[in-house]
Amino acid sequence: MAAVDSSPSGAPAPQLSDISHAVDLEEEQIARRKRAEEIGKWALPIIVMAAAIWFWDRIVVWNEIPHFILPRPGLVLETLWADRAMLFESLWVTVKITALALLVAVVGGVGLAVLFAQSKFAEMSFSPFAVILQVTPIVAIAPLIFIYIESKLVGLLLCAWIVAFFPILANTTLGLNSADHNLRDLFRIYRASRWQRLIYLQLPSALPYFLGGLKIAGGLALIGAVVAEYVAGSGGIDSGLAFRILEAGYRLNIPRMFAALILIAGTGVLIYALTSLTSYLLLRKWHESALKREQ
Asked: Which of 19-33, 109-123, 170-184, 203-217 has the lowest mean pLDDT?
């Protein structure tokens, strides 16, 4: 008796070995795509940056642009090395102001956000002042700050803090108010106190929001410090990179200006990398934004 073909088209049914081979090919393609993505994540930015630097160098050469208008990348690196003592001393001043401002912004922003979450009257009373500080340009506030505050360091710190404060406050407040309402009801059923709800429910819920605000505030603190140094415009041993840029501009030392800009940009990248690493380490085991899923 002849065997009946189970395939509707009359074609032979796929064998188990064929299915296994197809699965192996698909897994191999997925693995190859992941390897390409891992390599491209590092290689592509390096290639694009190298191409941009090469193009910058060629523009200067092809158009015979004088070094006091646009220096070549090699000259900028030579100046960075030659003036490293002065530039890195100024870099330390800028980094110190940025770090202190970010620290104060974190403490003040989180503290005020907790107060807002615990008291709607406090939020209605003080949130307009936070919004006013955020929407008013720091270049308009800084001259008044340096009129009323004698200490240059305190004035710079206050300017940088004003810029970095609001993202921490706004994001943390949003996170504290975004706790799951079902969990809120559960805590209420078990008669949890207000502080127990805050510590065990609201703060863990707000952590991803806070870390998102921290990434923003880190860069803004650096921007605030640099802008405040521009407004202060005073030299001396406690002068930051912004003053070095102004000084180099007055002397038409454009390579030094570019060298200082490279240090500022590098500092901003480092701050973003550190805040991103902090976010990853704190969220990688439980939050969806940091968990790795199979494609």
From this structure: 19-33
- Residue 185 pLDDT: 86
154 in a structural domain:
yes
- 50 and 89 belong to one structural domain: no
CATH number at residue 231: 1.10.3720.10
Q: How many C-beta atoms lie closer than 10 Å to residue 109's C-beta?
A: 26
Nearest to 214 by CA among 105, 94, 116: 105
Position with higher pLDDT, 66 vs 234: 66
Residue 53 shares a structural domain with residue 166: no
Q: What is the rounded CA–CA span in Å between residue 79 and residue 86? A: 11
Residue range 119-137, pLDDT digits in tens: 888 888 888 888 888 888 8
Same domain? 44 vs 83: no
The closest of 100, 236, 83, 240 to 158, measured between CA atoms, is: 100
Helix (H) or strand (E) holding 35: helix 16-63
CA distances from 18 to 5, 22, 171 (A): 18, 6, 53
pTM (2 decimals)? Answer: 0.83
Contact in structure between 97 and 153 (CB atoms under 8 Å): yes
Q: Domain check: are 86 and 219 in the same one?
A: yes
| Last-in-domain residue among 36, 65, 94 | 65
Q: What is the arithmetic mean of pLDDT over 237-245?
A: 82
Detail the DSSP E strand segments found in 45-170. Answer: none
Q: Containing H/E element for 161?
A: helix 152-176
Residue 104's domain comprises: 73-283
Torsional sign, CA 146, 148, 150, 156: negative
Q: Is residue 110 part of a domain?
A: yes
For residue range 66-122, what is the model confidence (pLDDT) as tens digits? 988 999 999 999 999 999 999 999 999 999 999 999 999 999 999 999 999 888 888
Number of domains the chain is built from: 2
